[in-house]
Amino acid sequence: MERDVTDLTPIFLSSQTGEANIGNFVGVSNGVTYNGIIYANAALEFYPASRHGHAPAVPDIVVPVNGSGGDAGTLSTASSQITQALNLPTNVERVYLDVIAQSQSNDEFWYFCVPNDQASNLLSCGNTAFRETEVTIDGQPAGVAPVYPWIYTGGIDPYLWEPIPGIQTLDFRPYRVDLTPFAGVLSDGNPHTVGVSVFNADSYFLATANLLVYQDHSAKTVTGGVLHNTLTAAPVPVVTENIMTGAGPTFTGSVSVESDRDFEISGYVQTSHGRVETILQQRVHFLSTQEFDVDATTDVQNAQQATTVDATTTVLGDGDAQTTEKHFSYPLALNYAFVANADGSASQTVTVNQQDIADEVRGEDGTLSVNNEVNATDTLNFDPTGHYAPSGSNTTQSYRRKTGDSCFARTLTAANQKLASVIGGKGCDD
Questions:
Q1: What is the pLDDT of residues 186-208, one digit of tens each?
Q2: Closest CA to 163 of 413, 422, 423
Q3: I need a surface site. Which of 40, 157, 203, 409 has the fewest CB within 10 A?
């Protein structure tokens, strides 16, 4: 796994201690022996600037937002927060927050969750299939970060992900929240607090974030304030239940949950190069539709989920206007069928389509387009003693990144837990 950490440059300008930590249990638990010891190494690679490769603009300050002890914070309920007190310089010009909210425990398969009144009937978790990360400054709404539906290497069926994992599974990518409209507030010399929570968290999410601060180096003081903010404190999702109870009992039907957030936040800073106003216009839309057929021997759950973000950022300053448009889409289709037989044997069949789509249009700088997609299927066959074996395993992952005249694309296929093919360039002719 490779990660560009250029935006963390400020922490490399002085001596630091660091740690790479993979949580792992080795020993005996409930009669099962776990002996998978993980060995790992890591290296930082530095690329010097030159006249052919200029140094990129980087933040002046990086402030971590974590839980106690510097670790990722545990968010067990919607009211749980990780917070960080801020005492920033008085010349802040731009601010961003890179957020990761990782689902765990009852929330690991949040995209399968249902309304609380149906959780026991449908053999699932509660609080519906909707989660969203909320960002606040001094307790006031400041931004929204959608939660990506990560599926881990042991998720649902481990054989789905051998040897090709799900999207971002080994490389969580943060979602960047633009907090620049609040730069004038954060520059006023007073203490402030940034907070992160997850709407509908149901024990639990792990959350962490980095605040990236850019200063005006030609001014000791930057003034400004928030001009407009229509973001509400929490979403108001619409839940529709259509579950019928039959003899047995059996539970069949559908559940849907939809959320639509349409907001604008604007603010200004008075800098050494004049007044700069930033206007953020965002629509965050979420829709989940689930179908169920559940009884004493059958558990069928089919989930279709889509998260989309359409964002336009307009920066007014120096008599000019610069506009950036971004579009994110996280489609997920997950079909799960478990059937138990009278002799004690059973089968579990899972098919997954997972995507990560991002497009950015930045004025005259052109368009950046990234599309990552995984299709995976497998059946686990259980004998009456509980032992199981996979069958029919197939996985395909495609990735394409295109910017201007440059394009990189690669498609991997696997069958029966073995890599079958690697094809480069597929999709670059589109």
A1: 999 999 999 999 999 999 999 99
A2: 413
A3: 40
Which H or E run includes 186? helix 183-186
Q: Facing residues of 197 across strands?
A: 134
Whether this prediction's pTM lies above 0.85 is answered by yes
- What distance in Å separates the CA atoms of residue 231 and residue 142, rounded to the nearest whole number? 7
Angle CA 252–255–257, to nearest 5: 175
Gyration radius of the chain's alpha carbons? 24
What the block records as the tokens of 367 is: 């368009």
Given a contact cutoff of 8 angstroms between Cβ atoms, the answer to whether 263 and 310 are in contact is: no
74: helix, coil or strand?
Answer: strand
**Rounded Cα distance, 294 and 146, in Å:** 30
Q: What is the helix (H) or strand (E) element at residue 185, kind and residue range? A: helix 183-186
Among candidate residues 170, 173, 196, the one with its CA nearest the CA of residue 73 = 196
180 DSSP assignment: G
- How far the first Cα of the chain sits from its last, in Å, is 28
Q: How far apart are CA 181 and CA 220, in angstroms?
A: 19
CA 406 to chain centre: 26
How far apart are alpha carbons 348 and 342 in whole angstroms? 15
Residue ranges per structural domain of the chain: 6-424
CA 111 distance to own-chain centroid: 13
> For 25-46, what is each residue's pLDDT tens digit?
899 988 889 888 888 888 899 9
pLDDT tens for residues 87-118?
A: 999 999 999 999 999 999 999 999 999 999 99
What is the rounded distance in angstroms from the CA atom of residue 350 to the CA atom of residue 333? Answer: 11
